[in-house]
Amino acid sequence: MDETNPIAERNAAAAAPSAAAPSADVAPRDDDDALTKLHPNHVKVLRISAALASIPFLIGALVLESADLLPTGVIVGPVALIALAVILRVPLRRHLARGYAMSADRLRVVRGILFRADTVVPFGRVQHIDVNQGPLERYYGIATLTLHTAGTHNASVDLPGLDEKLAREMREEIRSHIKREAL
Predict the structure, then answer these.
(1) Where is this region: Disordered (predicted)?
(2) The whole model's pTM is what?
């Protein structure tokens, strides 16, 4: 049985030059192109979480609407439109704003819509690694990889929305790097 390493394939594909790549004398505008996107099911999980979070606001709007203080639809209408935007648009933007790049000795995690954060975690600083799944993540086959590092600022870095098998493979690859470095 011929098993391939998806992490090595992904790294090789990212390192391979493409026909549309800029010439060597022109620096790329942004290195976001090198980032690996998260699993598409991550958007579904974010949308379901947003829908669950919007339910209390919709119930509150319905209760206020039933008090007959204002004309019908003045409260529920705007709340429903905002909830719809929060359920449909915000999770997609959050998903598209996240990405990662894993090299031989570090993991880079980029996140944020309004405030962008670009975190690089050298494997030498990693103390332990978790792969977490909530019920929704388990249902959709995705997981969150959490790297815990030495230090106080950004002592743990989460990378949600990974395929469960990929998250476990990344954890094992990072663990093997840490073991090699310790020897």
Answers:
(1) 1-33
(2) 0.76
